[in-house]
Amino acid sequence: MTFDPRHKSRTLLDGPDRAPARAMLKAIGFKDEDLARPLVGVAHCWIEVMPCNFNHRTLAERVKAGIRAAGGTPIEYNTIAISDGVAMGTEGMKTSLVSREVVADSIELVARGHLFDALVAISGCDKTIPGTVMALTRLNIPGLMLYSGSTEFGEYEGRHLTIQDVFEAVGAFNASKMSAEELCAIEGHACPGAGACGGQFTANTMSTAFEMIGISPMGWNGVPAVDAGKEDVAFECGRLVMEVLRRGVTPKAILTRKAFLNAIAGVMATGGSTNAVLHLLAVAKAAGVKLSLGDFDRISRKIPLLADLKPWGRFTAPDMHRAGGMTVVAKRLLDAGLLHADELTVTGKTIGEEARGARETPRQEVIRPLKRPLKPTGGMVILKGNLAPEGCVAKVAGHERMLHRGPARVFNREEDTFTAVKSGKIKAGDVIVIRYEGPKGGPGMREMLGVTGALAGAGLLDSVALMTDGRFSGATHGLMVGHIAPEAAVGGPIAALRNGDIVVLDIKKRRLDVELSAAEFKRRLRKWKPPAPRYKSGVMAKYARTVSSASEGAVTD
């Protein structure tokens, strides 16, 4: 049976009873012939507070042109975004993860309210990427996601820079290892123009994950933001969504369990951000697919680390695109028998077919051959233990420390930790504990890049460990453990920690423990009282009341 390309919009626009709706649309320039075609939403996240999404209006125009050329009527709309790089280290950063839910909710509401037949969602900065895919999945109308692209690296005195270098320069300046003039120069050169952060931080991690999952066309997300080919890709997305609509292929036909496992494999092979755990769990929830923390650890154990990417490696996302992009990584996994090759993608091809078409740049150094991986296993692991009964996430790409035992230095908010690092109060061997920063406790689960950048700048990354019920930027490296669940705000074991308690992080055993007896733990937790809510009204209070555990993706539905 042929799929009706106007499967939604006929109800909105056809027949005498719908004359008022047509009249409203004609008031803004639509003609009868426009309203007789499929209505295709073009949702984007343009906002004048960051480079990550700054090209969305331009890309939206090209997507719309592609939709018109293929016989559809595009309708553009936009949602919000929060800049992690701008808000980092302040109270404003608590809004970042909350924004993922708002992005998803608002895109869903507009498309559902106006009965769009299909949807192209343009994403940019970190939370907009999973947020757009969550919306596509909830709506389950034919559609795709286009990532607006990474920025190119900045340059200063022969060094290739990303925003990571600025955060670490702040730490070096505070430790009297860098002059104010050099800090200012790095600040002025690190971000050369439009596009999301250039390393395999959260934005590029999720961009590549959704190419692997199949909801973004393979190779198209990787085209950098300022590359002349990005507008061509946007036009082709407009044409492609009309093909997807005529075929009647919906997101839930693409977002299968095996597709999610392919996405996790891609994250592990590229040393991606720990935020991928939160976001893939959240999208899986929207898709009705069973996915757990255990899946991430199981896949990490068998996937080699292949891509030599910042924050811990040498290269940036545009470098990887020029090397052949995520298609080459998929081909490596296919050759190793580690890819579910028969999963459908939005192009109509399977992921295996896409991988077989990989074009690798001769003599490229970004993506290692299977015989010479950077590591034999993936870039992150899942730990459990008496401090994290539900689990937590540790990134292991870029360092070799598998064991750390040391005294806890406990802080109840990120700012106090940053001050302690800045004033030289953190010593080699310490285990820094930052709590009450989880989904409910923050609320909003801030990233800790200000602190981890300060540690790097102070030369402490190789001698301390950090654990938190908050989360980390994809630009973070070192022995860092995040997403500890249950979080402190709900009485998780991390709430019982005190200064001087001996904490043990054992990566090989996948354990995070404190050397306390069960009886002492119970005694301390019996005396514990939850802190008063930081927000008593508004969006932050509503989020704190409804958000789930980090081990379930920190979702609100």
UniProtKB/TrEMBL annotation:
PANTHER family: DIHYDROXY-ACID DEHYDRATASE DAD (PTHR21000), DIHYDROXY-ACID DEHYDRATASE, MITOCHONDRIAL (PTHR21000:SF5). The active site is at S473. The gene is ilvD. Functions in the biosynthesis of branched-chain amino acids. Catalyzes the dehydration of (2R,3R)-2,3-dihydroxy-3-methylpentanoate (2,3-dihydroxy-3-methylvalerate) into 2-oxo-3-methylpentanoate (2-oxo-3-methylvalerate) and of (2R)-2,3-dihydroxy-3-methylbutanoate (2,3-dihydroxyisovalerate) into 2-oxo-3-methylbutanoate (2-oxoisovalerate), the penultimate precursor to L-isoleucine and L-valine, respectively. InterPro entries: DHAD_IlvD/Edd, Dihydro-acid_dehy_C, DihydroxyA_deHydtase, DiOHA_6PGluconate_deHydtase_CS, ILV_EDD_C, ILV_EDD_N, IlvD/EDD_N. The keyword Iron-sulfur applies. Belongs to the IlvD/Edd family. This is Dihydroxy-acid dehydratase. It is an enzyme of class 4 (lyase). GO terms for molecular function: 2 iron, 2 sulfur cluster binding; dihydroxy-acid dehydratase activity; magnesium ion binding. Homodimer. Keywords: 2Fe-2S, Amino-acid biosynthesis, Branched-chain amino acid biosynthesis, Iron, Iron-sulfur, Lyase, Magnesium, Metal-binding. It catalyses: (2R)-2,3-dihydroxy-3-methylbutanoate = 3-methyl-2-oxobutanoate + H2O; (2R,3R)-2,3-dihydroxy-3-methylpentanoate = (S)-3-methyl-2-oxopentanoate + H2O. Binds 1 [2Fe-2S] cluster per subunit. This cluster acts as a Lewis acid cofactor. It comes from Candidatus Methylomirabilis limnetica. The keyword Metal-binding applies. Pfam families: ILV_EDD_C (PF24877), ILVD_EDD_N (PF00920). Its EC number is 4.2.1.9. Residues 37-353 form the Dihydroxy-acid/6-phosphogluconate dehydratase N-terminal domain. Mg(2+) binds at D84, D126, K127, E447. Pathway: Amino-acid biosynthesis; L-valine biosynthesis; L-valine from pyruvate: step 3/4; Amino-acid biosynthesis; L-isoleucine biosynthesis; L-isoleucine from 2-oxobutanoate: step 3/4. Its cofactor is [2Fe-2S] cluster; Mg(2+). The modification N6-carboxylysine is found at K127. GO terms for biological process: isoleucine biosynthetic process; L-valine biosynthetic process.
